[in-house]
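Many introductory courses stop at the sequence. We go one step further.
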Amino acid sequence: MHACCMSCNLFAAIEAESIIAINACISALYHEGIFIKPEKAGVIANNGLKFLRLYAKLAKMCFKKRMKRFPLAPKGHYLHHQFLTLLHQSQTCTWCENLLLYGVQMEEDYIGKPSRLARRVSSKTTSLRVIERTFLAIRTALGTSWGDESSD
């Protein structure tokens, strides 16, 4: 087999393995409650750490070939700390905290609307105008349901 094909096959195999690891990790976190038994927490943490190791390996492979893929984002560092904490808890605690307990999940639409508003205002007053327009949008959405004076 040609060296290029073997390299592509290795790359694809590492990608698949990393996807399987993070999918198992995230799926398990969503399946569990607030507290996780140590045995399960250890498996979840190891899958998360495995994903980070494989992601770093893929990034290094791409960097060597001057391919702009797999950027090393600051969130990777944060995730590493979280997975290590979960692994440590799995080895020392009776119950482990689910990592999602400290996560913030917003609808994509909530992020999209303020960014669209920001593009419609002067760059000099962007922050103020985005906040004002967001408050107006929220007030309109709520209508007179709470906090508004009655119109009679």
